[in-house]
What we know:
- It comes from Desulfocicer vacuolatum DSM 3385.
- This is gamma-glutamyl-gamma-aminobutyrate hydrolase.
- It is an enzyme of class 3 (hydrolase).
- It is a single chain.
- The chain is about 25% helix and about 25% strand.
- It has helices spanning about 25-30, 45-55, 85-100, 110-120, 125-130, 160-165, 225-235, and strands at about 5-10, 10-15, 20, 35-40, 60, 105-110, 125, 150-155, 165-170, 175-180, 185-190, 195-200, 205-210.
- A hairpin with a 4-residue loop joins strand 11 and strand 12.
- It starts with a strand and ends in a 6-residue tail after the last helix.
- Helix 2 (about 45-55) packs across helix 3 (about 85-100).
- The strands form 3 sheets. It has a 9-stranded mixed beta sheet, sandwiched between helices. Strands 2-3 form a two-stranded antiparallel ribbon. A two-stranded antiparallel ribbon has the order 7-10.
- The chain has a single domain (about 5-235), classed as Class I glutamine amidotransferase (GATase) domain (Rossmann fold, 3-Layer(aba) Sandwich), CATH 3.40.50.880.
- The chain is α/β, with parallel strands linked by helices.
- Bound molecules: the ligand N[C@@H](CCC(=O)NCCCC(=O)O)C(=O)O.
- Ligand LF53FM6H binds near residues 63 and 176.
Amino acid sequence: xxxxxxxxxxxxxxxxxxxxxxxxxxxxxxxxxxxxxxxxxxxxxxxxxxxxxxxxxxxxxxxxxxxxxxxxxxxxxxxxxxxxxxxxxxxxxxxxxxxxxxxxxxxxxxxxxxxxxxxxxxxxxxxxxxxxxxxxxxxxxxxxxxxxxxxxxxxxxxxxxxxxxxxxxxxxxxxxxxxxxxxxxxxxxxxxxxxxxxxxxxxxxxxxxxxxxxxxxxxxxxxxxxxxxxxxxxxxxxxx
Length: 240
Ligand SMILES: N[C@@H](CCC(=O)NCCCC(=O)O)C(=O)O
């Protein structure tokens, strides 16, 4: 049985209705990696979130809104234009319960930020106003499958092993980033301006967060599927 990967979603608020949505590239990447994707709508019922986890083998925390700054004890600066407390509550509870079960988790963009904030770390609310000498990380006028900047993996990290290299060119689409790494994680990838581009849990089977968007690269640059294959592989059930 192929591993079932739950993918978190966001509220897509239209004038007359609210939809549950996620970029289809997450779905395609899980399928390409040999998993079965299912979407996890945001819910406020905590017990329902736990039943979600009963139905999946691995969790993918997708991208989206800024995490509420009060989660890491800060009032929002003017560059923070929106957050979704319901999604924060849902995903933070889901992530913590997934860790309690040692369920494999991959966080992407917002997802790495949720993981870090959930375990007591903090975020740069806006790297372009809070980080000196920061490079480009938000090429709004370029296709999302554009390789935009380099990152370097820490020697011996899981991500170095997954991609079989110490450095990689990635796409980018964020204005926030991990600032203080939560104690449970280690930062294992950095861009050349020292922005944290990945974190890995020190103890769990597979709890990895990346700041770039590998799901948007898996068609044009197939080596990025390796990260989803690692999630799917870690999520395989012990059939015996
Ligand atoms: N708000 C955070 C995270 C940005 C992010 O997740 N962007 C992708 C959104 C759409 C998608 O999921 O593909 C930040 O700006 O740093």
